[in-house]
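User: Could you go from structure to sequence for me? I need the amino acid at each position, not a summary. Structure tokens:
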């Protein structure tokens, strides 16, 4: 399994770290932060073919803007234990890229991709309602950045297998 991820800038990482004390009570805290753009059901043997198909699919993609706008939650996530608290991400460019990749590669999970896709940075999962409420009541300053690189993450190797630079318009 692979995922094409949007790396987050230091300002978003600092925001996630600043929220860490409010994650008390959650069973699973996320220590690696990114925004998943698209998942791929490919194993390690398919890596080179996937990378070449992605190279073609991504070739017309310029850098785009993204903004963390607040804290939100999936009360009952489609996979795994919930609730899941996250930083909400708004980005028309990311939504467009996700749609194009779904058209090219199809969906891996109907309930996470396509019309169900919600760009976000996961903070934690499986916590008590009072911890979720505490986070949802947190006001944050929006953080905007230009997405100029994408990372193809290998779940099997737990590392970035390939980096793609996006040209600035």
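Assistant: Here is the amino acid at each position, in order:
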């Amino acid at each position: 399994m692979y995922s094409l991820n949007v790396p987050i800038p230091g300002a978003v990482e600092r925001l996630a770290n600043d929220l860490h004390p409010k994650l008390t009570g959650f069973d699973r805290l996320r220590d690696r932060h990114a925004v998943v753009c698209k998942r791929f059901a490919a194993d390690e043997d398919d890596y080179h073919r996937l990378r070449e198909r992605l190279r073609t699919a991504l070739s017309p993609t310029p850098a785009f803007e993204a903004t963390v706008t607040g804290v939100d939650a999936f009360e009952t996530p489609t996979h795994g234990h919930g609730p899941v608290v996250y930083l909400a991400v708004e980005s028309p460019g990311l939504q467009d890229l996700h749609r194009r990749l779904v058209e090219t590669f199809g969906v891996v999970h109907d309930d996470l991709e396509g019309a169900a896709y919600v760009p976000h940075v996961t903070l934690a999962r499986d916590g008590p309602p009072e911890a979720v409420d505490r986070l949802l009541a947190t006001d944050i300053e929006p953080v905007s950045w230009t997405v100029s690189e994408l990372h193809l993450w290998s779940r099997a190797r737990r590392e970035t297998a390939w980096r793609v630079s996006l040209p600035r318009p």
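One structural detail worth keeping in mind: The longest helix spans residues 92-105.
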